[in-house]
Design goal:
By secondary structure, this protein is an alpha+beta fold.
Length: 669
């Protein structure tokens, strides 16, 4: 039972008869506990202990007689009721809605068709497979009913339901027939009659609270009741219509949908189905609440003082989590029981896929959320869905929006059967597919299914891909497909070089590097390398974008090449090269003189003016096309520099201007 359930009592607004019933039930719960080490495959909660069965039977009969159940024709049965404490070998699940217009009165709740579809999907799934170790086999869904007019006198009113009221209403719905003797005819309500496997799941309206607990301490519970029944016996092997009237015990679960919260209809649906599956599996494995037969019980001596146990129970000591019901052990609680004997293992609900497309459409989803429950065989909380995990070879790069890979990256799918024990069934197959994000559903590719191990690579254009994976165990359980985002990136970084440009530059110019390396939607730039004529430095400094280069003092005349190489985080590399030349013009050599004068490398302005005069005359002759005359003047310029080198002109500056003048002599016009 979810949260504080089964045997911890709540006594707000409970009638005297109800209190009597609850006291007796508490007594039965507290004493109906197994010895440790009892074989788990016995189909009897009281473990064949006749004394214990007799005590449980006496407690229950005292309770229903004290509450007047047998005196009420709507809830009458054939006393005494024998409490046998069996599990449900083949649960026959029937939904009962405590509402005559569920869909109309509960607009924010799942529709009846959705909840019925969930129950049908649950019964047809492998959800109860792990319960086979406790004697529970396959289940069936037998349909549903809203509340009938016949049981109005005992139904809860004013949106406040008490434990006893709900027991009375369920008893009426599953057994009432005004034609005596009781049990001879099926119930007039149309609800399927009870048998050893019946399990009625009662959904309360969204507005209805449970007085004995409400959502703060109760999100669902299961219990048992009794309804009149009849069987016909044979005499000496000859079939004769000799009726034998008896009371058939039945299991039922109550789901207060008011407790289901969430911002979306799907969240409300998931909350309700998780609570319902929790109670269904517990009712199937433990119809007599409080017996706690999956694990040991908090009560050491099952034949302890009956009245002492009653008193302890009435004190509302919370012992329910210590009796080891299957789903309680695995309930996803904040403060789990960590001491003996139950040792909770909080595990979130899981999603089971719905293979039937028609049923999925009825439910409104292709999966159902269910509670987990304890498996001794699997040493953990089942059902154990196989799990897949996508793993990446090299190269790969984890990014914020997914993992980046190339078409050479080996992807592999790691799969396991989910068991925490070595005797798990193993994985039968792995399914996967991938497609570009945003691909319409109708054009998404089919799954590829193969036995593990599975390896593959992505092919196609660069972009964001959805990779879906799932696995199927050898036991038939299937993992709901889940997706990973993988970004295919075979493209190297993009490189844009603005400066230098493929053009001549005057030797007197300043060149400011301007380039950009980016990877766009790719994995990102991991490194950038720049070189000028094969060197990563010029003039003692690097070549970062924005770096200024003094061509006059840091570079030689002639052709040059500037290269930028970018490598992304997947080792995709790209490069771009710009070739340019450094030349001398009649104007640029004059700028040489002025720049060196300003820098103090020409000692005085008189010498500078002498040099500039020669350059002006040579430029005029060059402009007239008189190259010989210009050459003679440039030669005189060179001689003056050579004479002043190391004196009036720094030797380095003189050498540069000499080379520039020689360039003009060689390149005229």
């Amino acid at each position: 039972m979810s949260k504080r359930t089964q045997c911890s009592t709540r006594r707000r607004r409970v009638s005297l008869h109800a209190k009597g019933l609850l006291v007796a039930i508490i007594g039965a719960c507290l004493i109906a506990v197994p010895h440790a080490g009892v074989p788990q495959n016995l189909l009897d909660d009281n473990r064949g202990d006749l004394a214990l069965a007799a005590l449980e039977t006496a407690a229950f009969n005292t309770a229903i007689n004290g509450a007047g159940f047998n005196l009420n024709p709507l809830t009458a049965n054939n006393p005494p009721v024998f409490v046998s404490g069996r599990v449900l070998a083949h649960p026959k699940i029937h939904n009962l809605y405590l509402d005559d217009d569920w869909d109309g009165h509960n607009p924010d709740a799942p529709k009846m068709a959705q909840l019925d579809g969930f129950t049908q999907a649950l019964a047809g799934s492998h959800y109860l497979d792990e319960a086979a170790q406790y004697g529970v086999q396959n289940a069936d869904f037998t349909g549903s009913h809203g509340r009938s007019i016949f049981c109005i006198p005992v139904q809860p009113e004013l949106d406040h339901a008490e434990f006893v009221e709900l027991l009375a209403w369920v008893t009426c719905e599953v057994g009432f027939n005004p034609v005596p003797p009781a049990g001879l005819l099926p119930p007039i309500t149309g609800v399927p009659p009870t048998n050893d496997d019946t399990l009625y799941v009662v959904y309360l309206p969204r507005s209805m609270s449970i007085v004995d607990g409400d959502c703060g301490s109760l999100s669902g519970y299961h219990f048992f009741g009794a309804a009149p029944n009849v069987t016909f016996e044979s005499v000496f092997g000859v079939p004769l219509p000799i009726p034998v009237f008896y009371s058939q015990t039945f299991a039922y679960a109550v789901i207060p949908t008011k407790c289901a919260q969430g911002g979306t209809p799907q969240a409300i649906m998931d909350s309700i189905t998780a609570a319902a599956s929790h109670e269904i599996v517990e009712a199937a494995t433990d119809p007599l609440v409080g017996t706690g037969w999956i694990n040991d019980s908090v009560v050491d001596d099952p034949h302890g003082d009956f009245f002492s146990n009653l008193i302890n129970g009435f004190s509302n000591v919370s012992t329910d989590l210590k009796v080891g019901e299957t789903a309680d052990i695995c309930e996803d609680v904040t403060n789990p029981q960590t001491g003996p004997p139950a040792f909770q293992h909080p595990t979130p609900p899981i999603n089971l896929p719905v293979d039937d497309s028609t049923l999925a459409q009825q439910i409104g989803n292709n999966q159902i959320q269910v509670a987990t429950y304890w498996s001794n065989r699997g040493n953990g909380c089942g059902p154990f869905l196989p799990t897949t995990r996508l793993k990446f070879g090299s190269p790969n790069y984890p990014g914020g929006g997914g993992t980046y890979v190339t078409s050479s990256t080996q992807l592999s799918i790691e799969a396991n059967d989910g068991y925490n024990a070595p005797n798990g069934p193993g994985v039968a197959s792995v399914s996967y597919r991938y497609y570009l994000q945003g691909t319409p559903t109708a054009t998404q590719p089919p799954f590829t299914t193969q036995a593990p191990p599975v390896q593959f690579t992505l092919s196609g254009p660069d972009g964001v891909y959805v990779v879906e994976t799932s696995a199927k165990g050898n036991d038939g359980l299937v993992e709901a497909p889940h997706s990973s985002i993988v970004i295919l990136d075979n493209t190297p970084p993009a490189i844009s070089i603005v400066s230098p440009a493929a053009t001549p530059y005057a030797h007197s110019d300043m060149l400011t590097l301007n380039y950009f390396v980016g990877d766009g939607p790719g994995s990102g730039v991991a490194s950038t390398t720049t070189s000028l004529d094969g060197s990563t430095t010029v003039g003692g400094h690097g070549l970062a974008s924005g770096q200024a280069i003094n061509l006059l003092t840091e570079m030689q005349l002639g052709p040059h090449s500037f290269t930028v190489e970018g490598v992304d985080n997947l080792a995709n590399d790209g490069s771009s090269t710009v070739s340019f030349t450094i030349v001398v013009t009649a104007d640029s050599i004059s700028k040489d003189v002025n720049l060196f004068l300003a820098a103090g490398l020409i000692k005085n302005s008189g010498l500078a003016n002498s040099l500039l005069g020669k350059l002006s005359a040579a430029a005029a002759a060059r402009a007239r096309g008189e190259c010989a005359t210009a050459s003679n003047i440039y030669s005189a310029f060179i001689q003056e520099l050579q004479a002043q080198s190391g004196k009036g002109v720094a030797a380095s500056a003189a050498a540069i201007m000499v080379a520039d003048a020689q360039y003009l002599i060689a390149n005229c016009p």
